[in-house]
Protein backbone atom coordinates (compact mmCIF):
# COMPACT_ATOMS: atom_id res chain seq x y z
CA UNK A 1 0.00 0.00 0.00
CA UNK A 2 1.42 3.43 -0.91
CA UNK A 3 0.90 6.39 1.39
CA UNK A 4 1.56 9.97 0.34
CA UNK A 5 2.73 12.78 2.60
CA UNK A 6 3.10 16.50 1.89
CA UNK A 7 5.25 19.15 3.54
CA UNK A 8 5.21 22.88 2.81
CA UNK A 9 8.35 23.66 4.74
CA UNK A 10 11.97 24.42 3.97
CA UNK A 11 14.64 21.77 3.47
CA UNK A 12 15.77 22.23 7.08
CA UNK A 13 12.53 20.81 8.44
CA UNK A 14 12.81 17.71 10.57
CA UNK A 15 11.56 14.50 8.92
CA UNK A 16 8.70 14.37 11.42
CA UNK A 17 6.98 17.21 9.58
CA UNK A 18 6.50 14.88 6.62
CA UNK A 19 4.36 12.51 8.66
CA UNK A 20 1.32 14.81 8.81
CA UNK A 21 -0.96 13.45 6.09
CA UNK A 22 -3.70 15.78 4.95
CA UNK A 23 -7.19 14.15 5.06
CA UNK A 24 -8.12 15.79 1.76
CA UNK A 25 -5.17 14.15 0.05
CA UNK A 26 -6.24 10.74 1.38
CA UNK A 27 -9.69 11.14 -0.16
CA UNK A 28 -8.83 12.69 -3.54
CA UNK A 29 -6.05 12.88 -6.06
CA UNK A 30 -3.26 15.18 -4.81
CA UNK A 31 -2.91 18.45 -6.69
CA UNK A 32 0.34 19.19 -8.46
CA UNK A 33 2.75 21.21 -6.29
CA UNK A 34 4.37 24.21 -7.94
CA UNK A 35 8.11 24.65 -8.09
CA UNK A 36 9.70 27.84 -9.41
CA UNK A 37 13.05 26.09 -9.76
CA UNK A 38 14.25 22.61 -10.70
CA UNK A 39 12.16 19.61 -9.61
CA UNK A 40 14.28 16.77 -8.22
CA UNK A 41 12.99 13.25 -7.70
CA UNK A 42 15.15 10.92 -5.61
CA UNK A 43 14.78 7.57 -3.87
CA UNK A 44 15.88 7.32 -0.26
CA UNK A 45 16.40 4.12 1.69
CA UNK A 46 17.53 2.93 5.10
CA UNK A 47 18.13 -0.36 6.83
CA UNK A 48 18.43 -1.29 10.47
CA UNK A 49 19.94 -4.42 11.94
CA UNK A 50 17.99 -5.50 14.99
CA UNK A 51 18.64 -7.84 17.86
CA UNK A 52 16.97 -11.25 17.57
CA UNK A 53 15.07 -12.69 20.51
CA UNK A 54 13.26 -15.51 18.67
CA UNK A 55 13.97 -18.06 15.96
CA UNK A 56 11.45 -19.12 13.33
CA UNK A 57 11.87 -22.71 12.19
CA UNK A 58 10.10 -25.05 9.78
CA UNK A 59 10.39 -28.74 9.01
CA UNK A 60 8.91 -31.29 6.67
CA UNK A 61 7.61 -34.59 8.03
CA UNK A 62 7.41 -37.55 5.65
CA UNK A 63 6.24 -41.16 5.72
CA UNK A 64 5.97 -44.02 3.28
CA UNK A 65 3.96 -47.25 3.23
CA UNK A 66 2.34 -49.71 0.84
CA UNK A 67 -1.13 -48.19 1.20
CA UNK A 68 -2.69 -44.78 1.78
CA UNK A 69 -4.08 -45.58 5.26
CA UNK A 70 -0.78 -47.03 6.41
CA UNK A 71 1.19 -44.01 5.16
CA UNK A 72 -1.13 -41.58 6.95
CA UNK A 73 -1.06 -43.66 10.14
CA UNK A 74 2.74 -43.63 10.12
CA UNK A 75 2.73 -39.87 9.48
CA UNK A 76 0.37 -39.35 12.42
CA UNK A 77 2.63 -41.40 14.70
CA UNK A 78 5.67 -39.40 13.64
CA UNK A 79 3.79 -36.13 14.12
CA UNK A 80 2.93 -37.11 17.69
CA UNK A 81 6.63 -37.67 18.42
CA UNK A 82 7.54 -34.30 16.87
CA UNK A 83 4.83 -32.51 18.88
CA UNK A 84 6.10 -34.04 22.12
CA UNK A 85 9.67 -32.98 21.37
CA UNK A 86 8.63 -29.45 20.41
CA UNK A 87 6.51 -29.04 23.53
CA UNK A 88 9.55 -29.95 25.62
CA UNK A 89 11.42 -27.13 23.88
CA UNK A 90 8.59 -24.68 24.75
CA UNK A 91 7.90 -23.89 21.10
CA UNK A 92 5.29 -21.17 20.47
CA UNK A 93 3.17 -20.26 17.42
CA UNK A 94 3.12 -23.93 16.40
CA UNK A 95 1.49 -24.53 13.01
CA UNK A 96 0.84 -27.87 11.29
CA UNK A 97 -0.45 -28.14 7.73
CA UNK A 98 -2.85 -30.80 6.50
CA UNK A 99 -1.14 -33.89 5.03
CA UNK A 100 -0.77 -34.60 1.35
CA UNK A 101 -0.23 -38.00 -0.28
CA UNK A 102 0.95 -39.21 -3.67
CA UNK A 103 1.95 -42.48 -5.31
CA UNK A 104 5.60 -43.29 -5.86
CA UNK A 105 6.02 -45.55 -8.87
CA UNK A 106 7.93 -48.79 -8.59
CA UNK A 107 11.63 -48.95 -9.43
CA UNK A 108 14.10 -51.80 -9.76
CA UNK A 109 15.15 -51.26 -6.17
CA UNK A 110 11.77 -50.48 -4.54
CA UNK A 111 8.15 -51.47 -5.06
CA UNK A 112 5.44 -48.86 -5.57
CA UNK A 113 4.38 -47.05 -2.40
CA UNK A 114 2.29 -44.22 -1.02
CA UNK A 115 4.18 -41.24 0.40
CA UNK A 116 2.70 -38.67 2.76
CA UNK A 117 4.05 -35.38 4.06
CA UNK A 118 3.12 -32.25 6.00
CA UNK A 119 4.80 -29.06 7.22
CA UNK A 120 5.44 -27.99 10.82
CA UNK A 121 6.61 -24.52 11.86
CA UNK A 122 6.93 -22.47 15.02
CA UNK A 123 9.11 -20.18 17.12
CA UNK A 124 11.52 -20.87 19.94
CA UNK A 125 14.24 -19.21 21.99
CA UNK A 126 17.69 -19.04 20.36
CA UNK A 127 19.20 -21.00 23.24
CA UNK A 128 17.11 -24.03 22.21
CA UNK A 129 18.30 -24.17 18.62
CA UNK A 130 20.87 -26.88 19.28
CA UNK A 131 18.22 -29.03 20.97
CA UNK A 132 15.90 -28.51 18.00
CA UNK A 133 18.56 -29.71 15.60
CA UNK A 134 19.56 -32.77 17.57
CA UNK A 135 16.36 -33.84 19.32
CA UNK A 136 13.81 -32.99 16.63
CA UNK A 137 15.96 -33.12 13.52
CA UNK A 138 17.01 -36.65 14.38
CA UNK A 139 13.47 -38.05 14.56
CA UNK A 140 12.31 -40.41 11.77
CA UNK A 141 10.94 -38.66 8.69
CA UNK A 142 12.01 -35.15 9.76
CA UNK A 143 13.79 -32.78 7.39
CA UNK A 144 14.74 -29.41 8.89
CA UNK A 145 14.56 -26.28 6.75
CA UNK A 146 16.63 -23.09 7.23
CA UNK A 147 16.02 -21.13 10.43
CA UNK A 148 15.35 -17.39 10.41
CA UNK A 149 15.94 -14.86 13.19
CA UNK A 150 12.99 -12.78 14.40
CA UNK A 151 13.25 -9.27 15.92
CA UNK A 152 11.50 -8.26 19.10
CA UNK A 153 7.92 -7.19 18.34
CA UNK A 154 8.07 -4.50 21.00
CA UNK A 155 10.71 -2.57 19.04
CA UNK A 156 8.76 -2.25 15.79
CA UNK A 157 7.49 1.30 16.39
CA UNK A 158 10.91 2.67 17.36
CA UNK A 159 12.53 0.86 14.43
CA UNK A 160 9.99 2.34 12.01
CA UNK A 161 10.63 5.89 13.24
CA UNK A 162 14.37 5.40 12.89
CA UNK A 163 13.98 3.98 9.39
CA UNK A 164 11.70 6.84 8.31
CA UNK A 165 14.22 9.42 9.47
CA UNK A 166 17.09 7.55 7.89
CA UNK A 167 15.37 7.08 4.53
CA UNK A 168 14.27 10.73 4.37
CA UNK A 169 17.73 11.96 5.35
CA UNK A 170 19.20 9.78 2.59
CA UNK A 171 16.82 11.33 0.05
CA UNK A 172 17.49 14.85 1.32
CA UNK A 173 21.27 14.36 1.12
CA UNK A 174 20.97 13.14 -2.45
CA UNK A 175 18.77 16.08 -3.39
CA UNK A 176 21.21 18.59 -1.87
CA UNK A 177 24.16 16.97 -3.67
CA UNK A 178 22.25 17.02 -6.95
CA UNK A 179 21.21 20.65 -6.47
CA UNK A 180 24.80 21.63 -5.74
CA UNK A 181 25.93 19.83 -8.88
CA UNK A 182 23.64 22.00 -11.03
CA UNK A 183 24.48 25.23 -9.21
CA UNK A 184 21.46 25.54 -6.92
CA UNK A 185 21.53 26.04 -3.17
CA UNK A 186 18.07 25.79 -1.61
CA UNK A 187 16.20 22.48 -1.46
CA UNK A 188 12.54 22.36 -0.37
CA UNK A 189 10.59 19.09 0.06
CA UNK A 190 7.40 18.85 -1.99
CA UNK A 191 6.18 15.29 -1.44
CA UNK A 192 7.21 11.92 -0.07
CA UNK A 193 5.74 8.55 -1.01
CA UNK A 194 6.58 5.44 0.99
CA UNK A 195 7.35 2.32 -1.02
CA UNK A 196 5.30 -0.30 0.79
CA UNK A 197 6.56 0.40 4.28
CA UNK A 198 8.93 -1.42 6.62
CA UNK A 199 9.92 -4.79 5.23
CA UNK A 200 11.96 -7.23 7.30
CA UNK A 201 14.87 -8.88 5.56
CA UNK A 202 15.06 -12.29 7.17
CA UNK A 203 18.60 -13.54 7.34
CA UNK A 204 18.66 -17.31 7.09
CA UNK A 205 21.14 -20.00 7.94
CA UNK A 206 20.94 -23.67 7.11
CA UNK A 207 20.33 -25.74 10.21
CA UNK A 208 23.16 -28.23 10.52
CA UNK A 209 23.87 -31.04 12.93
CA UNK A 210 27.17 -29.61 14.08
CA UNK A 211 27.59 -30.22 17.79
CA UNK A 212 29.12 -26.78 18.26
CA UNK A 213 26.42 -24.85 16.44
CA UNK A 214 26.02 -21.49 18.18
CA UNK A 215 22.76 -19.51 17.74
CA UNK A 216 24.70 -16.32 18.49
CA UNK A 217 26.44 -16.77 15.13
CA UNK A 218 23.18 -16.44 13.22
CA UNK A 219 22.95 -13.20 11.22
CA UNK A 220 20.42 -10.90 12.83
CA UNK A 221 17.19 -9.67 11.22
CA UNK A 222 17.39 -6.51 9.12
CA UNK A 223 14.49 -4.12 8.48
CA UNK A 224 14.47 -1.98 5.34
CA UNK A 225 12.40 1.01 4.25
CA UNK A 226 12.42 3.00 1.02
CA UNK A 227 10.65 6.15 -0.14
CA UNK A 228 10.36 8.34 -3.20
CA UNK A 229 10.83 12.05 -2.52
CA UNK A 230 10.29 15.13 -4.68
CA UNK A 231 12.17 18.36 -3.93
CA UNK A 232 12.21 21.86 -5.39
CA UNK A 233 15.72 23.24 -5.88
CA UNK A 234 16.37 26.96 -6.35
Verbal overview:
The protein is elongated, with a radius of gyration of 26 Å. Helix content is 26%, strand content 36%. Mean pLDDT is 78; it is low at 1-30 and 200-211. It contains 4 helices and 12 strands; from the N terminus they run βαββαβββαββαββββ.
Number of helices: 4
Tell me the radius of gyration: 26 Å
* Distance between the amino and carboxyl termini: 32 Å
Q: Give the percentage of residues in beta strands.
A: 35-45%
Mean pLDDT: 78
N to C succession of SSEs: EHEEHEEEHEEHEEEE
Number of strands: 12
Shape: elongated
Task: Tell me roughly what share of residues is in helical segments.
Answer: 25-40%
Structure classification? alpha+beta
Poorly predicted sequence stretches spanning 5 or more consecutive residues:
1-30, 200-211
Largest sheet: 7 strands, antiparallel
Q: Which properties best describe this structure?
A:
alpha+beta; 5-stranded antiparallel beta sheet; 12 strands; 36% strand; elongated; disordered N terminus
Would you spell out the secondary-structure blueprint of this structure?
Layout: E1 4-6, H1 23-27, E2 38-49, E3 52-65, H2 68-88, E4 92-96, E5 100-104, E6 113-124, H3 129-136, E7 142-144, E8 147-151, H4 156-181, E9 187-194, E10 199-201, E11 204-205, E12 222-233
Antiparallel strand pairs: 1-9, 2-12, 3-6, 3-7, 3-8, 4-6, 5-6, 8-11, 9-12, 10-12
